[in-house]
């Protein structure tokens, strides 16, 4: 690795390589002196530049220490996190070398009990790639058949097509250890398609004394030329130059075989990058482009809202079922009013009426309904909190205001959801539009409330109706009372139920009618029926009115004017629109990164296609 990369790797007793070192060798003919970059991130832009290649050893040691200390303190700690080195030279092979920790069975300082599993797992992680050439380093004195590294390589490369055996410490071999036969793969010895290369590396003492690479190679040449048994090896089976030549040759062969696949892979990656770029919002560089895009988004929002309100589409999100939500809230409003209305035929309410009627005795004939008493009773039911400052305060006002506010909130939430869907590419514009929509709906809600309060004030001052339902209900109740009075002794007779009028009251009224009533009792009876009929009629009219007003003012009017009002917010405000539609920094960075990726893929694909 040092010979190929032109850099010195750390050396030490026991475990010196404690993390993967990924060294990329790059050629740049424009430089005069080689340099390197080093870091813990694969992105070279974050690397530290090292101009003196002799300093790279110390940098690797520092980063190794930093990585291992993240796990624990100790000299034998192994980590999976790699160090990235990039060596740039004017000439030489272009490839990537990966230096891995050797297979270790025991940690010298006892700080990592699972060191064997860690080292084998790390090697396993890197050699499984079919495009990786595995250099299995075996000492000359070791038993090749029991070499764990060879067994691991055979797992992923059973034929040895990408495994090259590197035999070191050949100067320690003896004539009778069959090393020559092993390297030549004669007889039953381990067979590798790429074979073995024997080396004589610098000894620790030679490294310490500063023996140069050239002198070391001279010693290696002398060893294989003069050794009685090693000299039997062919020149293509030993030496550092042979190993480098073999690696470069294998690299070229694998690149040639991989080119068709690489072309297809690059074309696929290029298409993916272009597709990802297309997903990003278009860059808007002119006022006209921004205005057009903004109007298009508003048109889509408005169109979807119109379809929802008209029932043309039915979205899965139940919060977008606006007509259904509106209808339910109107029904809930009707229920609130009905529950707030007392039982006009109860004994308690009758007593209250009698007290009120006693107070106005003499003001009118005793058998006539008193308008003041009638109005007082209606006000007591629906305007119970009225005061000089707020005469119409009560359940009608509260329920009406609550209904209009809730419908406004529902509309606001639905439109916000549509804005999120269609304007997500412009967060600032989305926030601005949401604020305008909220203001718009608030104004419509206030307008609807004012209209309804005017109606309630009229009701407070003058209970009145020409609706025939009022008279029809009174007539229906009185007719049944009369019929019941005539059939009091017919116990098995079934009577039509009148919703809201108890059978007990009907029977009691029939008995009173049968035996005759005083003018006062008759007026109380008529007042009870009239209040029941009027309030029932009034509630129906009010429910219909508030339903129409809420739909017209808050839903329909907002729908009709949404597009116009929002566009009007930008009238003569080109700079405002520009600032709101400015591309988000994260999106801009993503666009630049994808664009650069596309340029690189395109350039690489063009080079490959020329081969």
Strand content: 5-15%
Enter the CATH topology name of the largest domain: Four Helix Bundle (Hemerythrin (Met), subunit A)
Instruction: Count the domains.
Output: 3
Report the top-level CATH class of the largest domain.
Mainly Alpha
Q: How large, in whole angstroms, is the Cα Rg? A: 47 Å
Largest sheet at a glance?
5 strands, mixed
Secondary structural class: alpha/beta
Mean pLDDT: 85
Beta-strand segment tally: 8
C-alpha geometry: elongated
Account of the protein in words:
It is a single chain. The chain is α/β, with parallel strands linked by helices. It has three domains: 1-9 and 17-127, P-loop containing nucleotide triphosphate hydrolases (Rossmann fold), CATH 3.40.50.300; 131-238, 3-Layer(aba) Sandwich (Rossmann fold); 302-573, Up-down Bundle (Four Helix Bundle (Hemerythrin (Met), subunit A)). Helix content is 57%, strand content 7%. The protein has 19 helices and eight strands. The strands form two sheets. It has a five-stranded mixed β-sheet, covered by helices on one side. A three-stranded parallel β-sheet has the order 6-7-8, with helices on both faces. Helix 8 (240-279) crosses helix 19 (585-609), helix 9 (287-310) runs antiparallel to helix 17 and helix 11 packs across helix 17 (519-568). It is elongated, with a radius of gyration of 47 Å.
């Amino acid at each position: 690795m040092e010979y190929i990369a032109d850099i010195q790797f750390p050396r030490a007793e026991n475990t010196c390589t404690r993390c993967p070192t990924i060294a990329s060798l790059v050629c740049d003919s424009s430089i005069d002196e080689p340099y390197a970059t080093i870091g813990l991130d694969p992105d070279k832009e974050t690397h530290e530049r090292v101009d003196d290649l002799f300093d790279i050893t110390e940098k690797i040691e520092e980063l190794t220490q930093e990585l291992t200390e993240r796990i624990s303190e100790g000299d034998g700690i192994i980590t999976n996190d790699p160090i990235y080195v990039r060596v740039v030279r004017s000439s030489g092979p272009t490839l990537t070398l990966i230096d891995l920790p050797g297979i270790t069975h025991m940690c010298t300082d006892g700080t990592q009990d699972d060191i064997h599993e860690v080292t084998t797992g790390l090697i396993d992680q890197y050699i499984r790639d079919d495009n990786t050439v595995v250099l299995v380093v075996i000492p000359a004195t070791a038993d090749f058949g029991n070499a764990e590294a060879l067994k691991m390589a055979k797992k992923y490369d059973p034929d040895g097509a990408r495994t090259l055996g590197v035999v070191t410490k050949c100067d320690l071999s003896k004539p009778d250890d069959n090393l020559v036969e092993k390297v030549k793969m004669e007889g039953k010895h381990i067979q590798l398609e790429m074979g073995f290369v024997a080396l004589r590396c610098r000894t620790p003492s030679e490294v310490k004394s500063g023996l140069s690479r050239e002198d070391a190679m001279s010693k290696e040449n002398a060893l294989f030329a003069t050794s009685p048994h090693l000299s039997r090896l062919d020149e293509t089976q030993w030496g550092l130059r042979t190993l480098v030549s073999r690696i470069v040759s294998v690299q070229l062969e694998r690149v040639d075989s991989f080119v068709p696949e690489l072309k297809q892979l690059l074309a696929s990656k290029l298409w993916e990058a272009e597709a990802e770029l297309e997903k990003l919002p278009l860059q808007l560089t002119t006022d006209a482009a921004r205005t057009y895009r903004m109007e298009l988004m508003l048109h889509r929002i408005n169109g979807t809202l119109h379809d929802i309100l008209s029932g043309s589409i039915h979205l899965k999100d139940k919060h977008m079922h606006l007509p259904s939500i509106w209808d339910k809230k109107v029904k809930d409003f009707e229920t609130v009013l009905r529950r707030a209305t007392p039982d006009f035929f109860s004994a308690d309410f009758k007593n209250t009426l009698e007290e009120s009627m006693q107070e106005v005795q003499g003001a009118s004939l005793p058998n006539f309904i008193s308008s003041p008493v009638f109005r007082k009773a209606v006000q007591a039911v629906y305007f119970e909190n009225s005061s000089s400052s707020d005469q119409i305060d009560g359940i009608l006002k509260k329920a009406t205001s609550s209904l209009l506010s809730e419908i406004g909130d529902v509309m606001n939430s639905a439109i916000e959801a549509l804005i999120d869907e269609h304007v997500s590419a412009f967060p600032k514009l989305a926030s601005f539009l949401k604020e305008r929509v909220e203001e718009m709906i608030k104004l419509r809600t206030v307008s609807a409330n004012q209209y309804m309060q005017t109606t309630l004030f009229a009701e407070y001052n003058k209970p009145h109706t020409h609706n025939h339902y009022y008279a029809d209900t009174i007539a229906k109740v009185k007719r049944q009372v009369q019929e019941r009075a005539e059939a009091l002794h017919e116990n098995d007779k079934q009577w039509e139920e009148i919703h809201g009028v108890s059978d007990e009251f009907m029977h009691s009224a029939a008995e009173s009618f049968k035996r005759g009533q005083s003018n006062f009792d008759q007026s109380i009876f008529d007042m009870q029926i009239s209040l029941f009929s009027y309030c029932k009629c009034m509630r129906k009219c009010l429910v219909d009115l508030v339903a129409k007003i809420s739909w017209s003012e808050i839903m329909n009017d907002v729908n009709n004017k949404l597009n116009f009002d929002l566009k009007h917010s930008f009238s003569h405000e080109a700079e405002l629109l520009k600032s709101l539609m400015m591309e988000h920094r994260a999106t801009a960075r993503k666009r630049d990164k994808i664009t650069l990726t596309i340029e690189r893929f395109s350039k690489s694909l063009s080079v490959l296609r020329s081969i």
